[in-house]
Amino acid sequence: MEFVAKIAKFDAKGVDVDQRAEYGIDTDRGTENLDMKASFAITPQNLKVACSQCNLRELCLPFGLAAHEVDRLDELVGARRKVKRQGQLYRAGDSFEAIYAIRTGSFKTDVLLEDGREQVTGFQMTGEILGLDGISGENHSCNATALEDSEVCVIPFARLEELSREVESLQRQFHKVMSREIVRDHGVMMLLGSMRAEERLAAFLLNMSQRFMARGFSAAEFHLRMTRDEIGSYLGLKLETVSRAFSKFQDEGLVSVQQKHIRILDIDGLKQLLVRCTRN
Amino acid sequence: MEFVAKIAKFDAKGVDVDQRAEYGIDTDRGTENLDMKASFAITPQNLKVACSQCNLRELCLPFGLAAHEVDRLDELVGARRKVKRQGQLYRAGDSFEAIYAIRTGSFKTDVLLEDGREQVTGFQMTGEILGLDGISGENHSCNATALEDSEVCVIPFARLEELSREVESLQRQFHKVMSREIVRDHGVMMLLGSMRAEERLAAFLLNMSQRFMARGFSAAEFHLRMTRDEIGSYLGLKLETVSRAFSKFQDEGLVSVQQKHIRILDIDGLKQLLVRCTRN
DNA sequence: CGCGCCTTTGAAGGAGCTCAATTTAGGTGG
DNA sequence: CCACCTAAATTGAGCTCCTTCAAAGGCGCG
User: Fold this and answer.
1) Is residue B171 packed enough to be buried (19+ CB in 10 Å), middle (13-18) or exposed (0-12)?
2) Nearest nt to B237, CA vs C1'?
3) Residue among B17, B28, B141 at smallest CA distance from B91
4) B183, A133: Cβ pair inside 8 Å?
């Protein structure tokens, strides 16, 4: 297990701070916007941003690659891009050039209907890949918005295809990443199509918990970066319904909720919510 | 309305016969189970089953490939497999070896919850690819069931990856197929998460219509292959709700419904249903 | 031609939505 | 550092859309 289980401390800025510390990146927010590329390959900090040195590589595209293969990936993943909270990494209609791996922070992706209705299609965390929707055409088909100040690795898609023709393990891993997105989407459909409100929220919380754990953070206590409205959009519910379900869980002693700060008190209780249900 | 294009997948009955005629395959159902492989490469009918001769190639994996490249794909796509109505092409848990291109007929894919709840994740028509969910792991994660007697081309995945390392256009097309599935899934999420019953059904019908048209059939009149229950599962509705919505559309003169036989009378009226709506 | 499955239709109930008011948190400027 | 301000979250009450339960009708297949 590459990621030693450690308990993350969640202050106001929570995860973000810890991750930055882990990567050896300056934690001081005041310096955050300094151009890091300018000093690339000079300081130890910046050496660390290469895939081969990245702590996220087991969660990301380099997974399963031999050391010398990761080195080749390093050549490809040159540029990085910072996106401020509420900033958009890409929008529906933007021409598709690259996919992105999240280094720090988190995102939501959504599609908009003409009348303004929004459907959040996913929340993405560090190590996860953004932009796969763009491959099918010339343009992106959804919006990717940062939920907090974030940074992504830009992976030019043409070069990724090129390299994956040469590096079999990269090809395989990339295909797995795409397929995993399809499987995940099917899970969301199951959730939206056949679960009731509380089941949906339980499934959401358990999913978040698991993903935090995979990143070395506490599975029991974490900060949600998205609003109730965004959770609701993702789960096919109104924000009031989400809020009520949170309150109900709290009343039942399943979780402790303080705004965006969540503590799971009875994980088995949450899991049972997913099995016992009567609809359909 | 571009969105409709991405939502669903389906099929009908008159279609099956038509398709068979189009492929130059004997339409007589009585002969359908004769072993076609036995006479492969002998009759003109069977020559047609190669990708290079297949009428579906513009809808399928060979799209965008040069003639000599399609020839290489022919080598790979050797075996075909017949699946009888209600038969399963693969099940959740089956080991993943190959993906499948539908030659004739149609399928549904679904995931099951422990308590028996089913979520239909898609309906697939000729030329569409099945099995992409299996790439992410060792096993398939959903079930693929034939909605009618059907036939698929078996594409061994290891060999597809191999060939796509050599043939750039194949690699690109395969990636597009995967990405298109992701985009389609996002459309379904939109549908399930933010639309009301009648909008969902309208989106479904428009999507079906469009896909029939893409296959050279009437966009206005077709046979649905799936039951109300399956439509309902796909749309996140109960079968009674689907039935009621069909009846309402008929009362309003939008469509003519006779069991599974659908005739669209007012396509613009259906499209307007998707825009004007008050929820969310 | 009869049986089973699918579909349709009705009536009643409920889960989640809408609308609205209040509380809380976080950011800003004095 | 505090008061203010805005965005987010909570909570309540009434209503709506969809579900549930039930029964009858129709189609296709053996």
Assistant:
1) buried
2) D18
3) B141
4) yes
pLDDT digits (tens, 9 = 90+) for A203-240: 999 999 999 999 999 999 999 999 999 999 999 999 99
Q: Residue A172: which of B117, B133, B161 has the nearest Cβ?
A: B161
The answer to whether some atom of strand D lies closer than 7 Å to the beta carbon of A192 is no
Least CB–CB distance from A183: residue in B136, B186, B235: B136
What pLDDT, in 10s, does the model give residues B120-137? 999 999 999 999 999 999
Q: Is A275 within 8 Å of chain B by CB?
A: yes
CA torsion angle B8 B92 A164 B127 (round to 10): -40
Nearest Cα of chain A lies from the Cα of B253 at a distance, in angstroms, of 25
Q: Return the SS3 of B257.
A: strand
Nearest to B132 by CA among A136, A99, A267, A274: A136
> What is the phi-psi region of residue A216: left when phi exceeds 0, alpha when psi lies from -120 to 50, beta otherwise?
left
* SS3 state at A189: helix
**Which spans in chain B are helix H?**
13-23, 44-47, 67-76, 157-166, 168-194, 197-214, 228-235, 239-251, 267-275
